């Protein structure tokens, strides 16, 4: 039972290429920090300044950063664990609903019906008391904990049954898609107590500050950027540990790794649960910036879109997922404004072109250039060399 925690420790006895290079991590952190510092500065400039960024632009960039966090969680399980998840929108949506419940409780008697305890949709549906699963969401620390606990719990329960049953490949992908579709149908029902098809909206405050304030919008952007940075470092640290080596060994040859005595199911469960929690954080940061959360966020198409971001950016690199999420969503924003009918065709064409010409995604261009410049390491071993170590 103590074997899995021991895998989180670095193992200098295992040689070979790094799963996440130190150089890419440093460059990524510097770029994110530069953006987090530069955007508020540009926002504070006079409106006539050419570098001025309005509140809408700041909020838009903040929303893109939440998508980047979601893409990071998808890349962790797809790029390194080998699980193509088509249901990460479920974790994203649950994290968003947990934050939305907190924001609804902050409205108080300022709602349309003036009820200090019940949200407007509950008053409209003649609910006479607050459901038990809404208790505690008036406190920000509790809501923040639930943002990670609820998606993490779903990921843990789902992974527990799926991995113990040895469900793999396309069958596991289909089951993850069915999971998010089931949540979509459930949250559409008014009797669930989450606002039905309208969802949760009309938010006023967050921790006592108005969401309409420019400073709060900038603060949410900074929080999104710092959360992206923290999640990236957590994933990079995990992949630099013995667990990271084991995860890639499972991806490359699960049966061989299992026969050698490694706890494959527990390793997959740990990484899948962490990925779900990261996706939940992304959803929680997304909701106060867009001002609404509804069952449409559970749509399987959203999960597929996140997979496309990772594929275009380059899976198995972490930073490629971020590049793909930011690039595709920036293009989507422009195309849906200028040529709304053409966007889906452009996205499909982009995916096909990248798949055929850049099988490793945009990040593959950087890694190929790095391999050409860097000297080849002697006696380099693959991540599966972990299987040669003693499991005990």
Written overview of the protein:
- This protein is mostly helical.
- It has 15 helices and four strands.
- It has helices at residues 3-6, 22-44, 55-80, 88-105, 120-124, 140-164, 169-187, 214-239, 242-252, 254-259, 264-290, 300-313, 319-338, 343-357, 361-373, and strands spanning 200-201, 205-206, 209-210, 292-293.
- β2 and β3 (209-210) form a beta hairpin.
Q: Which stretches of 5+ consecutive residues score pLDDT under 50?
A: 376-385
What's the structural domain tally? 1
Strands of the widest sheet, in order across it, are 1-4
- H/E order of the elements? HHHHHHHEEEHHHHEHHHH
Proportion of β residues? under 5%
The N- and C-terminal alpha carbons lie at a distance of: 11 Å
| Largest sheet entry | 2 strands, antiparallel
Give the number of DSSP strands. Answer: 4
Please estimate the helix content. Answer: 55-70%
Count of separate DSSP helical elements: 15
Structural class call reads mainly alpha
The overall pLDDT average reads: 88
Radius of gyration: 22 Å
Shape estimate: globular
Chain-wise SSE layout:
Blueprint: H1 3-6, H2 22-44, H3 55-80, H4 88-105, H5 120-124, H6 140-164, H7 169-187, E1 200-201, E2 205-206, E3 209-210, H8 214-239, H9 242-252, H10 254-259, H11 264-290, E4 292-293, H12 300-313, H13 319-338, H14 343-357, H15 361-373
Antiparallel strand pairs: 1-4, 2-3
Helix pairs in contact: 2-8, 3-8, 3-11, 3-12, 3-13, 4-6, 4-7, 4-11, 6-11, 8-11, 9-11, 12-13, 12-15, 13-15
